[in-house]
Write a structure and sequence with these properties.
Length: 157
């Protein structure tokens, strides 16, 4: 058993010293941008925003398009739409990010963007509003909305 453990340690020592993500980036060019999402953006694909400062930093200054889900804990449609939006954003693998703003905790942000009903979803690209909707929409409409925010022509899908 000791010989087997020693062999495993020897094999591990033979592995390259650079991070596995760097290896993946070289072997699979399509993964190259995922590194920047991890290191440059310093946040996951879906994240909470509670203050104006966080909103400015993570949404308005983002180089990646961001959709902002204005929701409330007491809102039934919000509880149904939120997970569907998250799933769709995660399926885009970093092409679009999602910020979640609870209007009861960040009322100033809701006021600033004139959110009068929840759920309200606003898409930002380079700090500018590019699309928005209120209420429930179906999955095809979510895809169209994300395409519009990410500026992806429908023919490229």
């Amino acid at each position: 058993m000791f010989a087997r453990a020693a062999r495993l340690v020897h094999q591990a020592a033979a592995l390259p010293k650079r991070p596995l993500l760097d290896l993946a980036n070289k072997q699979h060019g399509h993964l190259r941008n995922s590194r920047f999402l991890c290191y440059e953006a310093q946040r996951p694909l879906v994240f909470d925003v509670a203050t104006t400062e966080e909103f400015e930093e993570h949404v308005l200054r983002s180089t990646i398009p961001v959709i902002v889900d204005f929701h409330a804990d007491w809102c039934g449609p919000c509880k149904m739409l939120g997970p569907r939006l998250e799933q769709k954003v995660q399926g885009r693998e970093g092409a679009v990010l999602m910020a979640k703003v609870n209007i009861d905790e960040a009322g100033d942000l809701a006021d600033e963007f004139r959110v009068s009903a929840v759920p309200t979803v606003i898409g930002f690209q380079n700090g500018e509003v590019v699309a928005e909707f209120q209420g429930m929409i179906d999955d095809d409409q979510i895809d169209e909305f994300l395409d519009q925010v990410a500026d992806v022509p429908a023919a490229e899908q």
